[in-house]
Design a protein that fits this description.
It contains seven helices and ten strands. By secondary structure, it is α/β, with parallel strands linked by helices.
């Protein structure tokens, strides 16, 4: 049995009111719901784990963790992470991990049939740096938001390595965390991350618990207060160190 606690890892996308522009409105959690969820976490005694310490724990090394640690992650890097989520998280003293699509700086979302006129802009380089300066960990979400379970070995290698290089150039610092688009991965995808120099990789519900397929619970627009509490409990059971 692990000497470390089971740590819930939650994944969000947009902190915004859903609109007709959203290809999948369920990726939107309203700001008021998000704030209430953070208040509940605070009330229950949860504190965000420092990413470096979390990684140590995952690797079986001694780590300094809060009594009730958890991680908040954001996939895709929509600007609402900066404009909406950051102020709410700062009120609770929480930080987060954000996974950026490296070809998306300042663009609208360009996958899943998202409307070209969508206001769902992705972060600009200066906004990404500002989040890093606030203590957020920045990771990769691939170059073009491709499904890693559908790519061959050369394409996997390119997506993993190129996205890391592009993000490191933008940030001026190391990028060693990765989240699979759609949470989809294969053994070949995990090898590609390792060969590209990543230290950890995140899936979603179906992650196998290994270092390159850490499971996360998706928090969607359907997650009411009771459902959120239930998913938090489930996340703690699934995210095994």
């Amino acid at each position: 049995m692990s000497r470390y606690p089971k740590i819930p890892v939650l994944v969000y996308h947009k902190i915004a009111e859903p609109s007709d522009y959203d290809a999948n409105p369920n990726t939107c959690v309203t700001p008021s719901n998000f704030e209430n969820q953070m208040k509940l976490l605070t009330l229950l005694g949860y504190r965000t784990a420092d990413p470096a310490e979390y990684l140590k724990a995952r690797l079986g090394l001694p780590a300094r963790l809060p009594e009730k640690p958890f991680l908040i992650t954001f996939d895709d890097a929509f600007e609402s992470a900066f404009t909406r989520a950051l102020p709410i998280l700062k009120k609770s003293g929480f930080s987060a991990v954000l996974f950026m699509v490296s070809s998306g700086f300042g663009r609208n979302a360009f996958w899943d049939g998202e409307d070209a006129n969508s206001p769902n802009r992705l972060l600009k380089p200066d906004e990404l740096k500002a989040l890093k300066d606030e203590g957020w960990c920045i990771g990769s979400h691939g170059v073009r938001h491709k499904n890693f379970a559908q790519l061959d070995a050369p394409a996997l290698a390119e997506e993993a390595a190129k996205s890391r290089t592009e993000l490191e150039l933008a940030l001026g610092s190391e990028v060693s965390w990765f989240a699979y688009p759609y949470g989809a991965y294969t053994p070949a995808a995990k090898r590609a991350l390792a060969e590209a120099g990543y230290k950890i990789g995140f899936a979603t519900e179906d992650g196998d618990g290994e270092i390159f397929a850490v499971p996360r619970r998706i928090i969607s627009g359907k997650s009411g207060f009771f459902n959120f509490a239930l998913r938090l409990r489930q996340a703690g059971k699934k995210s095994i160190l």
